[in-house]
User: Fold this.
Amino acid sequence: MNLYSRKQRWKLVLALAALAIVGASLWYSNRIVNKVRQEERRKVELWAEAVRNRAQLVNYTDSLFHRLREEERKRVELWADAQVHLASDDVNDLSFYLKVVSDNTTIPVIITDEKGRPTASRNLDPHIERDPDSLLAAVGRMDAAHEPIPIVLFGDHKQYLHYTDSRIVTELQQVMDNIIRSFISETVMNTAAVPVIYTDSTHTRVIEHSNIEMETIADSAALQARIALMAQANPPIEVSLAGRGRNYIFYEESRVITQLRYFPYVQFGIIGLFLLVSYALFSLFRNAEQNQVWVGMAKETAHQLGTPLSSLMAWMELLKENGADGAAVEEMRKDVERLEVITERFSKIGSNPELTPTPVHTAIRDTVQYLKPRLPGRVEIEVAPPNEVGLKVPLNRALFSWVLENLIRNAVDAMEGQGHIRISGERSGNEVHVDVSDTGKGIPAGKLKTVFRPGYTTKKRGWGLGLSLTKRIIEQYHQGKIYVKHSAPGKGTTFRITLKA
Assistant:
């Protein structure tokens, strides 16, 4: 198993472990959040039930007040009947009627004649009783509150008894109003932090609200949309209060519940983003370190090769002077020149190589001419003529030749020393494409994206650096692209180099 395969396997193991950790954490976090949500939900339900119970209590209190008013009216009617009996000629057993009249110490009453002029009063403020205008004003207020009771005296003579609620009922009514106001206020200002909208029966007029943005309340369209959402989430609580008709309380989950629902996902999203940024920075620094090592090794190799090359050149001159075989010396010269080219290539790694407009076909031809005698005899290399005469691109001749050598040698290895290699170049717009095709065993589809990674190799003794170096030279030094154009098992592979013209 090569380095890249082990790396991929470890990545898969770590990814599965990370997913397991995240899944377990999400499960546990959701479990805790659900418990908190259930507790919050229980608070909301208790609040809603308390609202219903308090509304029933308010309505029950109002019914008691209504019954108290009815009792007071009966007392007033009894008092009026007593007045009639006291004014009649029948004086038998008047003590009961006198007692009825004298026992009225709380209900304010005014008796007027047929023309509405006050003739008697009871339980009024002294300054009202002394002022005729104040008495008439009091009669008007009493008639607005209660219908006057006619008193038929002897003959057709009539009087009218005007009354209002007693001081006790008035004070109780004030207490009742305070209770209703307190009910509404405490309903919207709930301890569960529940968003509440308290409306009338038409759902258009907001009586009170809490935990709702003022912009929503001010905008009728936004208000109706929010009420619709609340009604969809929870059925509104119907409340019928005395003197206010039917009202509705709309509510929804508290903000705490809403925030808790999304908290685990936001939390792991932030953690994931942090890990992603950290991994990206780590990879960036790691690649920078690898580049430094790569450049350092290349330059050191060039330096180490330089000294023996100088010695070899001196020995060649000495052999010539001593009459050595000319053919042998010539072959040695070619190999030394080849070593000089290799040294030049390594020296250019890590620096900004000079790019010179060069005919592509010439660079390809020179490289093929050098390699052809050094390849197995059963390997054929074809260089197709370009579709444009004099096709030039900015190249570093030494590095581009290195790229072609790597591709050709890989093709020879893929064909196992027997087959056909075709190299072609063509212009397409402002780009130049160079294709290197072979008839080898091809690359499996699952490996197409990994062939350029360091360490990937199919050779038993290979380092997996040739294609990685090729990609670096084309993309970093020539600002081009190199990729597998197409490949199929048993049918060969085509690598394409794309350069800017």
Notes: The first strand starts at residue 109 and ends at 112. Residues 91-98 have pLDDT under 50 and may be disordered. The two ends are 41 Å apart (CA to CA). The CA atoms of residues 33 and 189 lie 25 Å apart.
